[in-house]
Amino acid sequence: MPTEESRQELRALEQRLWRLLMQPSVASTGRVHLLDLGMMRDRLGVGWPALRPRVLTAADTIIDRYLTRNDIRFRTAGDDYILVFASLERHAAALVCARVAQELLQLFLGDDRAADLRVSTAVGVLDGKIRFEHALATVLLAEARLGVEPAGARSHEQENASASAIGAGQDGFPLMSGAILYADDGGGKAKPVLRQLRLSPDDAGRFGIRYRPVWDIGQQVISTYMGTPVRIFPDESFIEGVAALNSLTDAMEILQLDADALVGSVEILNGLFRNKSRLMMSVPICFETLAARRTRLPFLEICQSIPDYLRRFLIFELLRFPPGVPTGRLSELLHEVRPYCRWTFMRMDFKPQSFSGLAGTGLNGITVAMPADRSAEARLMEEMNGIVTAAERAGLMICVTGLSTTSMVVAARASGVKLVAGNRIGPPQDRPRSMIRFDWPDLFRDEEE
Questions:
Q1: Which residues of 192-207 are buried (b: 16+ CB within 10 A; e: fewer)?
Q2: How many other C-beta atoms are found inside a 10 Å radius of the C-beta of residue 20?
Q3: 16 CB neighbour count, 10 Å cutoff
Q4: pLDDT on residue 6
Q5: 10 Å Cβ neighbour count for 41?
Q6: Is the pTM of this model over 0.90?
């Protein structure tokens, strides 16, 4: 959540921009737009607080993709967006806002046709207040597809006049520029041009997938390898799992990672199968890949090419699914992928919670990652007992990862956990090994070594 200091700074910036927009020559140009996320917040309901940082980060990224250097985007204290376009005419600018809205909705609500966002266009100033005309994003896009001139659209001459108005204020200086929020420090001084940091893309970490061995305690065998996303840094250190993906907001980049993980895992499975070796493999799929039709369909096309004889060796693990996803929506997405795998698991937070909402959706199990805090083992063991009990009540299998000590593995077994992973079982590997026998004496023998 934002701090009180950041909220005050945001309100101050908002007030400065709002005073600027109150000038009639700016507000009447039709290039000042308000993208209202209120309907999206309502649709996400109780899931909004958890999803808010990801929604706003994604909105910033999507909007920046459409804006030019001289345009402005500004997030209000109420988590809506003001966009000021330096050169686009009113209708084109409104369409840009509509496309931003469409991408956001597809990313976080999928194909929910009942969801929409409101695009408001400044059309003038009346009694000291900016007047807006409102339209829904879906209506704007539908009119564009049909080639319909929207109501209230102005002539070409009027748009040219607006271009002149947006370009200069009453004092002859530009009213809007790419640095308008930063150039005015109250004393008329310009902000200095600062040296920019330039690093190789690899310095930020390259993405890939590694495989963690999963121990089946009941069968005392390592017969499953869990594919986990990794972000590898120049010194070969890495972070894994959901944490590795926190820097990604573009759905197409996430789709590329998911597709690479699936293709690579299936190719490994096929090689093992041809050598008469059998192994279960878990493949990660992010929420963003399944939520929107434009990313889901390409992924499902790859799934359809998986040979039938390999599908029974695949587990799909769902990552980054927000807690507010409706049960019906989850069931719909699981129905899409279930034909191509044996089981479906979902990565959940390691905390006491109810899984009753997951029962009957088609989900087979959950995966929880134990925090790396050896000083709190007693508390974590107690929390694990509660998580396992809640999963059993919902009829779900459970896999606990992140186990780094023998004591935690023993505690997991005592809690009723059948599948465990972590450095105590084995580190992540570039390529899975064949199925091996692994019993309790092996666990303690490895510890002594």
A1: eeeeeeeeeeeeebeb
A2: 19
A3: 15
A4: 57
A5: 18
A6: no
